[in-house]
């Protein structure tokens, strides 16, 4: 068992794992700060990529990017590894634990029996920390859980080698060396600049701010092109990715606003505090969209808005974020 490893519950798996691992190595960092430095905020809609039968929608950057960016920007040396077989992956995990090293890893939530059944679907980008082994069970710090838990070796091996995109292939990572002093302010600047770039600069319509308007157009056409059941499934997946799959609410907008607020206090900048307030209000509009989309999905007869109106609500979020990130792009450091 890794001595003195402390489990903390967080809003999102990868930024939560990042915070828990780095705090163990005496690099003090909150989850919002990890999410912001790692430029976790993003948006993408890929209608041609079906996940569980519905078009792919994401409110965060690709798996592994947050941890990689945070450690690079704070000067932390990492070990990362993928494997060809479950046997090799589990052997490497055991060796790290024997050396008292807490190990982060990518898994499928479908094969994690300690999660409520409602949350167990085929999603292969869930991060957690293994910090010990007792008999045939591993001790797990899953940041979405209130307390630490356990999992059998067989179930963990299945979760680490689930099929489907993205294939985890036993991916694991851990800290090799951490500096005694870190430049948080520089890392904050780099994280904000990259977030603005990724939201505003992609030239293709499936990523960044443009993708919000793409999805708005798609939603407007759902009644014309889809059956009522399929339209409901599509809306349900958008809501789930926005409000349930480790977002902290409003598609990570609240989490990123918390990062801006913390950065404002650290750097004594009133402008970042103002941006935090603005993004919180934008997050409220995202949540309003999710509320009405859920009522449409369930065909509630009261307070029901049309698909055209849902499209307009989403366009409002897109317009607000376009103006927001345009201003953020021009912050003077």
Describe it for me?
This protein has 333 residues and is of the alpha+beta class. The chain has two domains: 13-177, Cathepsin B, Chain A, CATH 3.90.70.10; 185-329, no CATH class. 50% of the residues lie in helices and 16% in strands. It has eleven helices and eight strands. The strands form two sheets. Strands 3-8-4-5-6-7 form a six-stranded antiparallel β-sheet, with helices on both faces. A hairpin with a 2-residue loop joins strand 5 (126-134) and strand 6 (137-141). Helix 2 (31-37) packs across helix 9, helix 7 packs antiparallel against helix 11 (307-329) and helix 10 (270-297) packs antiparallel against helix 11. The radius of gyration is 20 Å and the shape is globular. The N and C termini lie far apart (44 Å). The model has no long low-confidence stretch (mean pLDDT 95). It holds the Pfam family BtrH_N. This is Peptidase. Residues 154-327 form the DUF4872 domain. Residues 12-143 form the Butirosin biosynthesis protein H N-terminal domain.
């Amino acid at each position: 068992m890794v001595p003195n490893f402390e489990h903390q519950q967080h809003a999102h798996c990868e930024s939560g794992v990042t915070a828990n691992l780095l705090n163990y190595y005496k690099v003090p960092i909150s989850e919002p700060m990890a999410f912001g430095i790692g430029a976790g905020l993003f948006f993408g809609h890929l209608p041609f990529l079906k996940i569980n039968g519905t078009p792919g929608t994401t409110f965060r950057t690709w798996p592994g990017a947050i941890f990689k960016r945070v450690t690079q920007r704070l000067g932390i040396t990492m070990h990362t590894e993928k494997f060809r077989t479950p046997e090799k992956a589990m052997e490497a995990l055991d060796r790290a634990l024997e050396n008292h090293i807490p190990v982060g890893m990518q898994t499928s939530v479908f094969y994690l029996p300690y999660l409520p059944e409602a949350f167990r679907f085929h999603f292969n980008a869930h991060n957690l920390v293994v910090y010990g082994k007792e008999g045939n069970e591993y001790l797990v710090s899953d940041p979405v859980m209130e307390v630490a838990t356990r999992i059998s070796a067989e179930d963990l091996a299945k979760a680490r080698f689930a099929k489907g995109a993205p294939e985890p292939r036993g991916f694991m990572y851990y800290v090799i060396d951490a500096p005694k002093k870190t430049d948080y302010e520089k890392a904050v600047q780099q994280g904000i600049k990259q977030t603005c770039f990724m939201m505003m600069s992609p030239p293709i319509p499936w990523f960044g701010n443009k993708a919000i308007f793409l999805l708005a157009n798609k939603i407007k056409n759902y009644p014309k092109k889809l059956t009522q059941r399929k339209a409901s499934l599509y809306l349900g997946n958008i809501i789930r990715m926005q409000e349930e799959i480790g977002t902290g609410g409003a598609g990570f907008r609240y989490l990123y606003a918390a990062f801006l607020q913390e950065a404002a206090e650290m750097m004594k900048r009133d402008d970042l505090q103002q941006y935090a307030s603005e993004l919180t209000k934008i997050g409220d509009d995202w949540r309003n969209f999710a509320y009405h989309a859920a009522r449409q999905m369930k065909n509630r007869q009261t307070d029901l808005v049309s698909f055209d109106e849902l499209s307009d609500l989403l366009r409002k979020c897109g317009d607000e974020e376009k103006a927001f990130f345009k201003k953020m792009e021009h912050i003077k450091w």
